[in-house]
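Sample entry was shown:

___
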Amino acid sequence: MGPVAASAGAVDCPAVERRRNPRATSLYQLLDVHYETVKGLWEERFEQRYRFWRGFWDTAVAGYLG
């Protein structure tokens, strides 16, 4: 086996996967604090420009905030 073949399989990878903590992220905190407020104000402040509230956001955010 030549030097190229020996080094072809070498890959630097972390040995252990680090667990994420979504609650520590800015996105989580932003959604947790402001999502219901934005949803409540949508019709009055944003609907004319951005159209109706799309319900799939409720599902997506609820899944993320878990």
